[in-house]
Amino acid sequence: MLKIFPIIYIFLLIGCQSVLLEKPNKSTENSGGYYLDDGPDKNIPKDLDKIPNAVPKKEALSRTANRPYLVFKKKYTPMKKLEPYSETGYASWYGKKYHGNKTSIGEVYDMYRMTGAHKTLPLPCFVKVTNLINQKSVIVRINDRGPFIKNRIIDLSYAAAHRLEIIEKGSELVKVEVISPLSDSALYKSLNAFYIQAGAFSNQDNAIRLLSRITKNKTEELSNKIIKKGSIYSVMIGPYTSRIKADEISKFLSEEFSLNTFIVMDK
After folding, report:
1. Staple 237 to which of 10, 171, 173, 196, CB 3.0 to 4.6 Å?
2. How far apart are CA 121 and CA 143, in angstroms?
3. Domain 193-265 maps to which CATH number in 3.30.70.1070, 2.60.34.10, 3.40.1580.10, 3.30.450.20?
4. pLDDT tens, position by position, 99-114
5. What sign does the CA torsion over 160, 164, 167, 171 have?
6. What's the pTM value of the predicted model, to 2 decimals?
7. How far is residue 212's CA from residue 227's CA, in Å, rounded to a whole number?
């Protein structure tokens, strides 16, 4: 059950933009949940799992959204340039209440795109966010300021939070890493990789034997793996950055080893 807490609305001018901020109730500072009148939309798209990660690219920084600003009597000084940055803390998410509103850089917030908000990172920029509980990762484009609540380091769009499986809990421990569009292209590709599920077993030894058979008969160097979810061990072959290539190998495995294979996207 999601917890819903009351908030007080205030308006604050940051640069030349009017921004709606949230004042936390003391009871929300160390707990999860979304804000009053916020949360999931009534008509949630059925293909949320297919929404792609943000694509890192070189962009000019905003002239106004990176100025020092004051929120709840606390001054924040954003970074002036893109540089290596890593932070661990709690992520939260924001949804329908802000859907369609302007972000700090003047863009329209879309809760079904891979975006986020951060208090001091340069806007816009791209970050990898990893859920440290289940190790799922996404790449989001930071285009807004927030969250201004104790013990929160990043606010995620509904789509990003869904991919990280933190919607119901409301917040989760994550690691945030800035991505350089030039030096980290391999990281982006790895998060948009296709795997082939070659088999699923309740017995781990059976999964290991299948993986061994496939590995011995294929010379291509891949990061094949066995994933345990619940009581099931799944044999995953890949990754492939091309869906066409993944389909080709999937067909080969199906015919060569008499397997019922299918394609999944790494998350």
Report:
1. 196
2. 9
3. 3.30.70.1070
4. 888 999 999 999 999 9
5. negative
6. 0.61
7. 15
